[in-house]
Amino acid sequence: MADENRQGFGESTAPFERRDATAQKELREVQASLAKAHFSQLLDEVERGQGFVIMRHGRPVAHLIPDPEDRQRRTTEAIANIKRLAKERAAEFGPVTVEEIISSIHEGHKY
Predict the structure, then answer these.
(1) Is 0.85 topped by the overall pTM?
(2) Which of 5, 8, 45, 88 could form a disulfide linkage to 15, CB 3.0–4.6 angstroms apart?
(3) Per-residue pLDDT at 110 exceeds 70
């Protein structure tokens, strides 16, 4: 999110505390009133892969989780784009050597 310091949207704020650290994908809790007031921002977070448990009076009433099909589609598109860029780079500059890879890893290091 653009402003991580907004009330209710930081990692350390009470309305978004982690529900279960042993869960496969950790869900953050949010009070229903806060979810209502900031629904579009919650959807932005869900789009990025974060899940939420909507709480009312201390009880979970709903789960807001990412759509697995959309996530798979976006992942597939990203991989295809990476492969396309790699082919374009190889066609323009040729194959990458081990020395170039090592050099790029250490580029900017101060020893």
Answers:
(1) no
(2) 8
(3) yes
